[in-house]
Amino acid sequence: MEFDRAKTQLVNRFRTTPNRHFDDYSQVLFWLSDRHLKLPADFSGFLLMCRRGVWIAWLTLLSAVSWGADSGGVDTAQNDAANSHPFVTPPPLTDPNTELVDRPLPGTKSEAAESPAGENGGALTPYYVRTGIGLSFITNVDYPDFGITGGVDMAPGFATGVMLGTQFHDNIAFEIEGGLLYNTVYSNQTGNVTATTMTQVTNVQLFQVPMMGNFIFRTDPLGATRIRLVAGGGMGGIFRQIFVTGSPDNYTESQTLGAYQGFGGIQINPGEPDLMVDVQFRYLNSISGQSVPSMSIMGTVTIRF
Q: Is the pLDDT at 62 greater than 50, yes or no?
């Protein structure tokens, strides 16, 4: 209220004596500073001495009061720390002993992702499963153990197999193999087949089931490529069964013998460490008893787990 009365008096005096408005306004400012703002007396006297600069002093005073109210009495350094500029934020503290690693380019894998998964508990084990299928060929031989005389021309058949193995060395593996080979005689050659208990032979079918233990050797003569040479061999047993159809009655014979085999070919890695593709030529025969040389060309797929 006192401020309003002083302002009204100042305006009235300015209207009656406009030439003295600086003196009267200075007196009002002195009274306000001493009564309400509680400024030091020296500063109030200094304002009275600034006859022409009272407007500048008044604006400066109001700006200072307004800045003090906005800051809320908080230290400037604290405000800077609480509201720091993002471009002047100090970098986070790092361990100086930490090894510097380049970041991978966008779309590429980092070395950590390509490192052996054994450190992360997801390494490929040395165990694998392999399966394949191909063609089986049998040469023209006699089968006296089966009661068949005369040469028998067998048509190409099929061969298949399943292998379980372990890669215990970079270039050497051991596996257990089970398979099946099937062949039948040419239909136009049945007239040349004679059997001791039959007057006429119309068909001959031969099934062979080998069970082998194999050692496999892999080498990489071309260097760091995806193509490797494969060779190996094994021993075990073979079960054979022959079905002869004709007149007067059909009959079947079977035998189980010791057997051996050898194979070789190429192995291709299509780009995945847990997948390999092989193409092999294989030779299989019994150690004793009825000799039935069996050859096959087989394509296999190996999956490591």
A: yes
Q: What would the pLDDT profile of 145-158 be if each residue is shown by its tens digit? A: 887 876 777 899 99
Give yes or no for a contact between 276 and 289, defined as CB atoms under 8 angstroms apart. Answer: no
- Torsion angle defined by CA atoms of residues 48, 52, 53 and 54, in that order, rounded to the nearest 10 degrees: 50
Supply the mean pLDDT for the chain: 75
The reported pTM is 0.59
Residue with tokens 């051996």: 260
Residue 42: other Cβ atoms inside 10 A? 7
Torsion of CA 77, 82, 83, 89, to 10 degrees: 90
For residues 256 and 168, give the distance between their C-alpha atoms in angstroms, rounded to a whole number.
31
Structure tokens at 28: 């009002």
Q: Give 94-121 as a DSSP string.
A: --TTSPP-PPPPTTS--HHHHS-GGGGT
Name the 3-class secondary structure at 243: strand
What are the residue ranges of CATH 2.40.160.20 in the chain?
Answer: 125-304
Q: How many CB atoms lie within 10 A of CB 94?
A: 8
CATH topology (fold) of 125-304: Porin (2.40.160)
Q: Judge whether 210 and 235 are in contact, CB under 8 Å.
A: no
**Strand segments (E) across the chain:** 127-138, 141-143, 148-152, 154-166, 172-185, 194-195, 200-219, 227-247, 251-268, 275-286, 294-304
